[in-house]
Amino acid sequence: MAVKTSTISRYVSALENDLGIALFNRSTRGLVLTEGGRLFREHAMVALQALDDARQVTSSLNLTPQGVLRVTMPSAFGRRHIVPHLPAFMTRYPDIDLDMVSTDETLNMIEVGIDLAIRIGALSDSSLMAKRIAPHRRIVCGSPAYLQRSSTPNVPEDLSAHDTLRLSLLPDDTWSFTRRANAKRSSEQTQVPVQLQGRLRADDSEAVLELAVAGCGLALLPTWLASTALREGRLLHVLPEWEARTGRAEPAIWAVYPPKKIVSSKVRAFVAYYAEVIGEPPYWDDGLALELQT
Protein backbone atom coordinates (compact mmCIF):
# COMPACT_ATOMS: atom_id res chain seq x y z
CA MET A 1 0.00 0.00 0.00
CA ALA A 2 1.43 3.38 -1.06
CA VAL A 3 1.97 6.02 1.63
CA LYS A 4 2.21 9.70 0.83
CA THR A 5 5.57 11.40 1.34
CA SER A 6 3.89 14.07 3.45
CA THR A 7 2.47 11.41 5.78
CA ILE A 8 5.90 9.80 6.28
CA SER A 9 7.45 13.23 6.91
CA ARG A 10 4.81 13.98 9.54
CA TYR A 11 5.44 10.65 11.33
CA VAL A 12 9.22 11.19 11.31
CA SER A 13 8.84 14.70 12.72
CA ALA A 14 6.55 13.42 15.46
CA LEU A 15 9.09 10.68 16.33
CA GLU A 16 11.96 13.22 16.44
CA ASN A 17 9.91 15.45 18.74
CA ASP A 18 9.19 12.47 21.00
CA LEU A 19 12.87 11.43 21.13
CA GLY A 20 14.20 14.96 21.37
CA ILE A 21 16.84 14.30 18.71
CA ALA A 22 17.16 14.67 14.95
CA LEU A 23 17.14 11.36 13.09
CA PHE A 24 18.10 12.74 9.67
CA ASN A 25 20.40 15.40 8.26
CA ARG A 26 18.33 17.13 5.59
CA SER A 27 19.80 18.81 2.53
CA THR A 28 18.83 19.53 -1.03
CA ARG A 29 20.62 16.34 -2.02
CA GLY A 30 18.46 14.12 0.24
CA LEU A 31 18.33 12.63 3.72
CA VAL A 32 21.16 10.98 5.66
CA LEU A 33 20.77 9.26 9.02
CA THR A 34 22.38 10.99 11.97
CA GLU A 35 24.27 9.02 14.62
CA GLY A 36 21.10 9.00 16.68
CA GLY A 37 19.13 7.85 13.63
CA ARG A 38 21.49 4.94 13.00
CA LEU A 39 21.33 3.90 16.66
CA PHE A 40 17.52 4.06 16.69
CA ARG A 41 17.32 2.08 13.44
CA GLU A 42 19.56 -0.72 14.76
CA HIS A 43 17.47 -1.20 17.90
CA ALA A 44 14.21 -0.84 15.99
CA MET A 45 15.26 -3.63 13.60
CA VAL A 46 15.98 -5.93 16.57
CA ALA A 47 12.55 -5.16 18.03
CA LEU A 48 10.82 -5.78 14.70
CA GLN A 49 12.63 -9.12 14.27
CA ALA A 50 11.60 -10.17 17.78
CA LEU A 51 8.00 -9.24 16.98
CA ASP A 52 8.11 -11.24 13.76
CA ASP A 53 9.58 -14.25 15.60
CA ALA A 54 6.83 -14.01 18.23
CA ARG A 55 4.17 -13.98 15.50
CA GLN A 56 5.65 -17.03 13.77
CA VAL A 57 6.11 -19.01 17.00
CA THR A 58 2.53 -18.35 18.03
CA SER A 59 0.97 -19.00 14.62
CA SER A 60 3.02 -22.19 14.10
CA LEU A 61 1.20 -23.82 17.01
CA ASN A 62 -1.89 -24.16 14.82
CA LEU A 63 -0.15 -24.95 11.54
CA THR A 64 -0.80 -28.38 10.06
CA PRO A 65 2.53 -30.22 9.56
CA GLN A 66 3.07 -30.27 5.83
CA GLY A 67 5.63 -30.20 3.05
CA VAL A 68 8.63 -32.35 2.12
CA LEU A 69 10.64 -33.64 5.09
CA ARG A 70 14.17 -34.83 4.28
CA VAL A 71 15.41 -37.27 6.94
CA THR A 72 18.73 -39.10 7.13
CA MET A 73 19.39 -42.09 9.38
CA PRO A 74 21.80 -45.03 9.84
CA SER A 75 20.83 -47.79 7.44
CA ALA A 76 20.34 -50.66 9.90
CA PHE A 77 18.45 -48.58 12.46
CA GLY A 78 16.26 -47.09 9.75
CA ARG A 79 15.30 -50.50 8.34
CA ARG A 80 14.48 -51.92 11.76
CA HIS A 81 12.93 -49.04 13.68
CA ILE A 82 11.99 -46.18 11.34
CA VAL A 83 10.57 -47.84 8.22
CA PRO A 84 8.21 -50.28 10.03
CA HIS A 85 6.39 -47.35 11.69
CA LEU A 86 6.23 -45.12 8.60
CA PRO A 87 2.79 -46.28 7.38
CA ALA A 88 1.18 -45.12 10.62
CA PHE A 89 3.14 -41.84 10.53
CA MET A 90 2.04 -41.12 6.95
CA THR A 91 -1.56 -41.86 7.89
CA ARG A 92 -1.41 -39.51 10.87
CA TYR A 93 0.22 -36.72 8.82
CA PRO A 94 -1.21 -36.92 5.29
CA ASP A 95 0.25 -33.54 4.27
CA ILE A 96 3.88 -34.57 4.88
CA ASP A 97 5.94 -36.06 2.04
CA LEU A 98 9.03 -37.94 3.21
CA ASP A 99 12.41 -38.07 1.49
CA MET A 100 14.59 -40.66 3.30
CA VAL A 101 18.38 -40.82 3.05
CA SER A 102 19.72 -44.05 4.59
CA THR A 103 23.47 -43.91 5.16
CA ASP A 104 26.01 -44.57 7.87
CA GLU A 105 27.90 -41.47 6.76
CA THR A 106 27.49 -38.32 8.84
CA LEU A 107 26.18 -35.83 6.30
CA ASN A 108 26.53 -32.07 6.49
CA MET A 109 22.85 -31.34 6.97
CA ILE A 110 22.92 -27.73 5.85
CA GLU A 111 24.98 -28.38 2.71
CA VAL A 112 22.78 -31.25 1.47
CA GLY A 113 19.46 -29.78 2.60
CA ILE A 114 18.56 -32.26 5.35
CA ASP A 115 15.77 -31.23 7.73
CA LEU A 116 16.35 -33.92 10.35
CA ALA A 117 18.94 -36.59 11.14
CA ILE A 118 18.71 -39.65 13.36
CA ARG A 119 22.14 -40.17 14.88
CA ILE A 120 23.43 -42.83 17.26
CA GLY A 121 26.16 -42.62 19.85
CA ALA A 122 27.88 -39.66 21.50
CA LEU A 123 27.36 -36.43 19.59
CA SER A 124 30.37 -34.36 18.67
CA ASP A 125 30.31 -30.68 19.51
CA SER A 126 28.45 -28.72 16.86
CA SER A 127 26.00 -25.91 16.32
CA LEU A 128 23.18 -28.37 15.62
CA MET A 129 20.18 -28.82 17.89
CA ALA A 130 19.55 -32.30 19.34
CA LYS A 131 16.77 -34.10 21.19
CA ARG A 132 17.40 -37.42 22.91
CA ILE A 133 14.94 -40.06 21.66
CA ALA A 134 16.19 -43.18 23.46
CA PRO A 135 19.18 -44.69 25.27
CA HIS A 136 21.76 -46.58 23.22
CA ARG A 137 22.73 -49.69 25.17
CA ARG A 138 25.38 -52.12 24.04
CA ILE A 139 25.75 -55.63 25.44
CA VAL A 140 28.25 -58.43 24.86
CA CYS A 141 26.61 -61.33 23.02
CA GLY A 142 27.61 -64.76 21.81
CA SER A 143 25.88 -67.74 20.24
CA PRO A 144 25.18 -70.83 22.39
CA ALA A 145 27.49 -72.85 20.14
CA TYR A 146 30.39 -70.43 20.55
CA LEU A 147 29.98 -70.22 24.34
CA GLN A 148 29.80 -74.00 24.62
CA ARG A 149 32.97 -74.28 22.58
CA SER A 150 34.95 -71.46 24.20
CA SER A 151 33.40 -71.12 27.69
CA THR A 152 31.55 -68.09 29.08
CA PRO A 153 33.61 -65.13 30.33
CA ASN A 154 32.91 -64.22 33.97
CA VAL A 155 34.68 -60.85 34.12
CA PRO A 156 35.61 -58.37 31.37
CA GLU A 157 39.29 -59.33 31.51
CA ASP A 158 38.34 -62.83 30.28
CA LEU A 159 37.44 -61.32 26.89
CA SER A 160 41.11 -60.92 26.00
CA ALA A 161 41.28 -64.71 25.54
CA HIS A 162 38.22 -64.82 23.25
CA ASP A 163 37.59 -64.24 19.57
CA THR A 164 35.77 -60.90 19.36
CA LEU A 165 33.95 -59.37 16.42
CA ARG A 166 34.77 -55.70 16.11
CA LEU A 167 33.18 -52.87 14.21
CA SER A 168 35.86 -51.24 12.06
CA LEU A 169 34.07 -47.87 12.22
CA LEU A 170 35.15 -47.53 15.84
CA PRO A 171 38.47 -45.80 16.66
CA ASP A 172 40.16 -48.79 18.32
CA ASP A 173 39.75 -52.40 19.45
CA THR A 174 38.96 -51.60 23.08
CA TRP A 175 35.72 -52.08 25.01
CA SER A 176 35.28 -50.33 28.35
CA PHE A 177 33.24 -51.85 31.20
CA THR A 178 31.65 -50.46 34.37
CA ARG A 179 29.84 -52.64 36.90
CA ARG A 180 26.10 -51.96 36.81
CA ALA A 181 24.65 -49.98 39.72
CA ASN A 182 22.20 -52.72 40.66
CA ALA A 183 24.81 -55.47 40.55
CA LYS A 184 26.71 -56.83 43.53
CA ARG A 185 29.56 -54.63 44.79
CA SER A 186 27.80 -51.64 43.21
CA SER A 187 30.30 -49.26 44.81
CA GLU A 188 32.91 -50.44 42.31
CA GLN A 189 32.50 -47.98 39.43
CA THR A 190 36.02 -48.09 38.03
CA GLN A 191 36.15 -48.48 34.26
CA VAL A 192 37.79 -51.67 33.04
CA PRO A 193 39.23 -51.34 29.52
CA VAL A 194 39.78 -54.57 27.62
CA GLN A 195 42.02 -54.88 24.56
CA LEU A 196 40.38 -57.26 22.11
CA GLN A 197 41.60 -59.82 19.63
CA GLY A 198 40.07 -61.90 16.87
CA ARG A 199 40.23 -62.55 13.16
CA LEU A 200 37.10 -60.69 12.02
CA ARG A 201 36.25 -57.02 11.74
CA ALA A 202 33.43 -55.44 9.70
CA ASP A 203 32.17 -51.97 8.88
CA ASP A 204 28.49 -52.98 9.10
CA SER A 205 26.70 -53.68 12.38
CA GLU A 206 24.25 -56.14 10.81
CA ALA A 207 27.19 -58.13 9.45
CA VAL A 208 28.66 -58.28 12.97
CA LEU A 209 25.29 -59.51 14.26
CA GLU A 210 25.13 -62.30 11.68
CA LEU A 211 28.71 -63.35 12.40
CA ALA A 212 27.92 -63.54 16.12
CA VAL A 213 24.83 -65.67 15.47
CA ALA A 214 26.95 -67.94 13.26
CA GLY A 215 29.30 -68.58 16.21
CA CYS A 216 32.33 -66.69 14.95
CA GLY A 217 32.97 -64.88 18.24
CA LEU A 218 31.63 -62.47 20.85
CA ALA A 219 30.23 -59.12 19.74
CA LEU A 220 29.32 -55.85 21.45
CA LEU A 221 25.90 -55.12 19.94
CA PRO A 222 23.25 -52.46 20.53
CA THR A 223 20.06 -53.87 22.00
CA TRP A 224 18.00 -52.31 19.19
CA LEU A 225 19.88 -54.63 16.83
CA ALA A 226 20.34 -57.78 18.94
CA SER A 227 17.05 -57.95 20.85
CA THR A 228 15.25 -60.31 18.43
CA ALA A 229 18.15 -62.78 18.34
CA LEU A 230 18.36 -62.64 22.15
CA ARG A 231 14.66 -63.40 22.60
CA GLU A 232 14.86 -66.26 20.11
CA GLY A 233 17.87 -67.75 21.91
CA ARG A 234 20.18 -67.39 18.89
CA LEU A 235 22.35 -65.11 21.04
CA LEU A 236 23.02 -65.05 24.78
CA HIS A 237 23.83 -61.99 26.89
CA VAL A 238 27.35 -62.26 28.30
CA LEU A 239 28.57 -60.31 31.36
CA PRO A 240 25.07 -59.04 32.32
CA GLU A 241 26.44 -57.38 35.48
CA TRP A 242 28.57 -55.03 33.41
CA GLU A 243 27.76 -51.94 31.37
CA ALA A 244 29.80 -51.91 28.16
CA ARG A 245 30.79 -48.92 26.02
CA THR A 246 33.14 -48.10 23.20
CA GLY A 247 33.89 -44.58 24.50
CA ARG A 248 33.63 -42.33 27.53
CA ALA A 249 30.61 -40.23 26.60
CA GLU A 250 27.04 -41.26 27.42
CA PRO A 251 25.63 -42.72 24.19
CA ALA A 252 22.06 -42.22 23.02
CA ILE A 253 19.83 -42.12 19.95
CA TRP A 254 19.25 -38.53 18.88
CA ALA A 255 17.08 -36.46 16.59
CA VAL A 256 19.33 -33.71 15.23
CA TYR A 257 18.29 -30.65 13.24
CA PRO A 258 19.83 -27.35 12.12
CA PRO A 259 19.66 -24.46 14.61
CA LYS A 260 16.60 -22.31 14.03
CA LYS A 261 14.61 -20.00 16.22
CA ILE A 262 11.49 -21.80 15.03
CA VAL A 263 11.55 -25.57 14.45
CA SER A 264 9.16 -26.46 11.63
CA SER A 265 5.98 -28.31 12.51
CA LYS A 266 6.91 -31.22 10.21
CA VAL A 267 10.19 -31.77 12.12
CA ARG A 268 8.43 -31.50 15.48
CA ALA A 269 5.78 -33.97 14.31
CA PHE A 270 8.35 -36.58 13.23
CA VAL A 271 10.41 -36.30 16.42
CA ALA A 272 7.36 -36.44 18.70
CA TYR A 273 5.89 -39.40 16.83
CA TYR A 274 9.02 -41.56 17.05
CA ALA A 275 9.69 -40.61 20.67
CA GLU A 276 6.15 -41.81 21.41
CA VAL A 277 6.49 -45.02 19.38
CA ILE A 278 9.90 -45.98 20.78
CA GLY A 279 8.92 -45.20 24.37
CA GLU A 280 10.98 -45.10 27.56
CA PRO A 281 12.43 -47.63 28.04
CA PRO A 282 12.49 -48.40 24.30
CA TYR A 283 10.18 -51.14 23.07
CA TRP A 284 13.06 -53.24 21.76
CA ASP A 285 14.23 -53.76 25.35
CA ASP A 286 10.92 -55.43 26.33
CA GLY A 287 11.69 -58.83 27.75
CA LEU A 288 15.29 -57.80 28.46
CA ALA A 289 14.39 -55.50 31.37
CA LEU A 290 15.86 -57.67 34.13
CA GLU A 291 19.20 -57.89 32.35
CA LEU A 292 19.35 -54.22 31.39
CA GLN A 293 17.99 -52.56 34.51
CA THR A 294 20.41 -49.98 35.89
From TrEMBL:
Residues 1-34 form the HTH lysR-type domain. The keyword DNA-binding applies. SUPFAM superfamilies: Periplasmic binding protein-like II (SSF53850), Winged helix' DNA-binding domain (SSF46785). Keywords: DNA-binding, Transcription, Transcription regulation. The keyword DNA-binding applies. GO terms for molecular function: DNA-binding transcription factor activity; sequence-specific DNA binding. GO terms for biological process: DNA-templated transcription. It holds the Pfam family HTH_1. Belongs to the LysR transcriptional regulatory family. This is DNA-binding transcriptional LysR family regulator.
